[in-house]
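PROTEIN ENTRY
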Amino acid sequence: MKTHIIFLLAIVLFMPIAQAASLYQSAAVHRVISEDQPLPADYIPADLVRAADYGIVTKKSADIDEMKIRLAQDVGSRDPRANMPSRLRDLMYLCEQQTGELSQLGSGYRSYDKQRIVYWNHRFDGQAALPGTSEHQAGLAADISIGGAFLTKHSATFTCFSEHAWKYGFMLSYPEGNSYLQGKSITEPWHWRYVGLEAARLAHDFGKKDYPAEFLAKLHYFRWLDNEALSETIPSLRLALAKLHDLKKADSNQAWFFGRQVSFMSTRVMAQVAVR
């Protein structure tokens, strides 16, 4: 047993940093999935579950892979409701109560090979992500259907999701004006991605000016804003600069990290001022 532990430690310790990071990021619920940061072709989530087992109504047979999603249990939590399918079910139920519309899971997990078929079928309209760049492969995407048809932005359920989804850890992956897919400004009102409670709340509080992938790529910055009780305003920037001065004066080891965040904040705040 001791030999096995030492061997495993050696694998992790001597694994190239980029490879180790890739393995971790493949599983992270807030991982950016894009052409710049694709999933490996052989990536399959280890915690896929049948959505129907969590009370979610499915559009297709509950046993097929496409009607599965990730469990994505909160790290360190044993609460049976602290996971993606339970929260999706609660969100769908809330919107059903508010709108009277019965929602279904229209599409969940898709393998790399399945996404390749979907992409081929939509190669002329640009309405599908390239294989390896789909959130469906991560098991974190839920396409929502109403009455057998995908959600539209004019439906009451979409309005409900737009208002409440962040409270359950979800965000809209393809909002109006995005340029993620090959089509022109492809919008998908039905495609909701699980990012966890923290990231969804930060997106709601701070990330309204950013599209989802850009927001997730800068998640560390928004966590910093939240931890420091700052906002992207001139007064907050002044406070951050004052603290940075104090940290440098005290020769604090936090100064370097804090300075990088303040620099990024300064760029964003000054860009807003310039627009006004």
